[in-house]
Structures are given as C-alpha cells and as structure tokens.
Amino acid sequence: MEIKKNPKSNLENYSKLFMQLGLVLALFVTYIAIENKTYDKEYGDLGSADMASNIEEETIEFQQQPEPPKPKTPPPPAPEKIEVVEDEKEVEETVIESTETDESEAVEVDEVEEVEEEEEVVEDVPFAIIEEVPVFPGCKGTKAQKKACLNKKMQKHVQRYFDAELANELGLAPGRKRIYLQFKIDKDGSITQINARAPHPRLKKEAMRIAKKLPKMKPGRQRGKAVRVGYTLPITFNVE
C-alpha cells in the first residue's frame, strides 16, 4: 500500500527555498553597487574644425533693371499779353439801358374789348337724379317728401282731367292699357316739349291736353342753377 504525500507540504518546502535564494541575490546586488566606482571621462583634443573651408559659397547674382524714362514735362504756357491802355486813348464804354419805365411817362392803352363769358350749358336732367327737385304748388318738406308729393299731385291731376270713357268709345279691345306722357319742366317752371305714346291717336291727344293744364312749378336746380327736368308720367286704365 502506497503512502500519498500531501501537496501542501511540498509547496511549503519550495517557498522556503525561494526565500533563501532571494536573500542571497539581494546581498549580491548590494555588494556590487558598493564596489562600483565612477570615473570622470577625459576627452582628447579634437582640434579646430575648419567649417568655412568645407562650405561652398553660393553667389546670388542681382540684375539691375534700367530706370524707366521720365515723362517729358510740357513747357509752361506762355504768359498772356496784357495790353496796357494809355490814359490818352479813349475807351468805348458799353451803355446799359434800363428797362424800367418812367412813371411820369403816359402809357396809351387801346380800347379794351369786353369778353362775354359763356354760360355753362347744363343739359336736361332726369327727374330721378336731379339735385333739387321741381316743386309742385303746395308741396313742402325734404327732397324726398317734395318728390313724393309731386308724383301724388300728378296722379290726382290725371284722375281729375283724363276722359276715361274715351277708351270705350274708340272700340279698343278689352284689357289693361297704358299711355306714356312725357314733358319738360322748364327753367322757369312751365311745362314744355309735351309728347305721348298711346294705343290710339285720340288717346295721345287727350294725354297731351291734360299735360297743358298742369300748373307752373318751381323749377328744379342742378349745381345751384335752374335746369330743365325731364318727367315721364305713365297713365294706366282698363277697357271693358
């Protein structure tokens, strides 16, 4: 039967051996360091080196450029000749005449022609856009009120004077008929340029007749001036 050795016991033996070797090595190194001495090194005469003799000189040549020619200075201008006038010679003086008029001198004025200013011609203005509407007798108020009053007075005038039986006498076809009565309210307020469109000549004549019965009105005005105002009055009636 073999007896096995413990590996730990082997390691302990090796460690002791290594420790002894380390001490011996440390003592040997210390001894060598003490015995070692340092000496100053002596250098021999190296001699003087002739650096200049070994370096080749490089010559740099400079080319001198010729100076540019100087510009020629122009000769100074000749001095102006000044003519000296002797006192004995007479010098003509320039006389400057004054343009101012003498107040004492009489100025003759020809006859002044009077220029007649042409009056601005204002064309007829439609009733719908007139600035100041014509005024029917008895109408008052604002522009809108006067306008409405004139239309109402016109309708009453037609109802009062128009002969409605005339349409039945003419034998017109039954139905709704219409007459367009046109005229101008002139600058003085009178009724002029009366015209009418009707389905029968007698109806046209009747419409123009009642237009002539309209009273004189206050004329309409545009830009502060009296103008003619165009007015259209439709007359509607039924024929049975």
From TrEMBL:
Region (Disordered), start-end ranges: 57-81
Pfam (any one): TonB_C
Residues annotated as domain TonB C-terminal: 180-238
InterPro entries, A to Z: TonB_C
Biased composition range(s): Pro residues: 66-79
Signal peptide positions (record): none
GO biological process, one term: transmembrane transport
Keywords: Membrane, Transmembrane, Transmembrane helix
Ranges that cross the membrane: 17-34
Protein name per the record: Energy transducer TonB
Organism per entry: Tenacibaculum holothuriorum
